[in-house]
Amino acid sequence: MFDLIQAGGWLMLPILACSVIALMVCIERAWVLRRTAIVPTWLVPQIEARVKEVGYFDSEFLGQLEQSASGKILAAGLRKTDFGIDAVKNVMEETANTVIFDLQRFLTVLGTIASISPLLGLLGTVIGMIQVFTELVSTGGGDPSQLSGGISQALITTAFGLGVAILALIGYRYFLRRVDHLIVHLEWQASRLVDVLVVGFDTESQE
């Protein structure tokens, strides 16, 4: 690794920093964006059972729901059940915007790293090439093998920058797709909650 830094010059340091940050973001997002943690399957069935058995939601039950991202949306809607279905839908939509923003956290960082890493590598290569030809001109010639060696060393930053960018882009696309899938499940659970509440309201009115 030290040889790479020497070959690529000081611009290898920010590229290495980008690779570390990208790796940390991927690990963090892989842990946070688990489906079981974001949209537990037991939420809606438990709410439906609660509606049928008890008919109301205390603070302890709502607190349990809010331990997951989907639960925060559903709990926000349940707190507005006394104001009607339209109020439930509106508050769930507002809460969902906040939850989705949290799901997309740090993805911009991956996208930025994927964009700037090859540019940093290219800049390092250009600076290295300038140094090689400057030394060539100052010495009035030189060994062709040394010249080719200097050029190959200068190209290392481009290769390393491209490698970091490719990995960061893969992570960015993967987690962006995972967030899209989670949003679909969030929307389904919110829609299912509305159906459960509508049935509950209709039953109460008939009684």
Overall description:
This protein is mainly alpha-helical and 207 residues long. It contains nine helices and no strands. α8 packs antiparallel against α9. The chain is rod-shaped and about 90 Å long.
Structural descriptors:
mainly alpha; 9 helices; single chain; disordered N terminus; 85% helix; 207 residues; disordered C terminus
How many beta-strand runs?
0
Instruction: Tell me what portion of residues adopts beta-strand conformation.
Output: under 5%
Structural class of the helices, strands and pairings? Answer: mainly alpha
**Proportion of residues in helical segments:** over 70%
Task: Give the C-alpha Rg.
Answer: 27 Å
Main sheet, how many strands, which sense, barrel?
none
Q: What average pLDDT do the residues reach?
A: 83
Show the helix and strand layout.
Blueprint: H1 2-8, H2 12-32, H3 35-38, H4 43-53, H5 59-65, H6 69-78, H7 85-103, H8 107-139, H9 144-206
Task: State the gist of this model.
By secondary structure, the protein is mainly alpha-helical. 85% of the residues lie in helices and 0% in strands.
